[in-house]
Design a protein that fits this description.
Elements lengths: L1 H19 L3 H14 L4 H14 L3 H14 L4 H13 L3 H14 L4 H44 L9 H32 L36 H9 L4
């Protein structure tokens, strides 16, 4: 048992060194090997691997590991911090602020958490302003385009826009189109951000890692199983699509 723990420590140190060398893929391999052999301190290994996944922009795996840390040790501040970092990177600022807040409750004087919380709050405020203003910017661009069209039409030999009411109607229609395009863009952006933390459909073999303990370690050392992320209706739908 002591020899096994020494192996885990060696693997974790190798992973830490890879992180220092910015070799995050290799760090993930070492941390995963350590998880398979570990009999304790899983939350630390999951926390380290979550960071490596984040650096590789594998947000689903980074978030999953961070949530695993919280599940294994709710008093370990890095679990909430790792989760917040992933959510912030995916521009999900509201959720990130909540996670930073939970981390701050555990360590109220941690300057790193305080700084990141303030930065995320500023980003969140900016995002709210963009959500409110971007559609009107789109409408304004539509007005400018419409006015240019009307002016150019007047300089042609046979202007088609002679009725002032028709000119106003065209300007309003194009402004409405600009407003709608901006709203659609913001909606697409939200979907894209949510998609960053959704389970990938095409999993890379480099990161397909079995986190369960080996049979030799016995049932007592087995890691807690992950909860199903899907409802029954979602599972049936995924089955029909051939994804179950």
């Amino acid at each position: 048992m002591e020899q096994q723990e020494d192996e885990v420590t060696a693997l974790r140190e190798k992973g830490n060194q890879c992180v220092k060398d910015n070799d995050f893929k290799q760090a993930i391999v070492f941390y995963s090997d350590a998880l398979r052999k570990a009999t304790q301190d899983w939350h630390i290994l999951f926390s380290n691997r979550s960071f490596a996944y984040l650096k590789e922009k594998l947000y689903f795996y980074a978030l999953s590991d961070a949530e695993k840390v919280i599940e294994l040790n709710p008093m370990f501040v890095k679990g909430y911090f790792r989760k917040a970092e992933v959510l912030k990177e995916c521009c999900m600022y509201d959720e990130a602020i909540l996670s930073y807040g939970r981390a701050l409750k555990l360590e109220p004087t941690n300057n790193t958490i305080i700084t990141n919380l303030r930065q995320t709050a500023l980003m969140c405020n900016r995002e709210v302003m963009l959500e409110r203003n971007i559609p009107f910017v789109g409408a304004g661009c539509g007005v400018i385009v419409a006015i240019i069209i009307v002016i150019f039409d007047q300089f042609t030999k046979t202007p088609t826009l002679k009725n002032p009411m028709l000119m106003v109607l065209i300007v309003m229609c194009i402004a409405a189109v600009g407003f709608l395009i901006a709203k659609i863009y913001r909606y697409y952006l939200k979907l894209h951000r949510k998609g960053l933390i959704q389970e990938p459909t095409d999993l890379s073999k480099d990161f397909l890692v079995n986190d369960q303990s080996t049979e030799e370690q016995g049932d007592d050392n087995e890691l807690p199983k992950k909860k199903n992320r899907y409802t029954k209706s979602q599972a049936r739908l995924r089955f029909k699509k051939g994804k179950s």
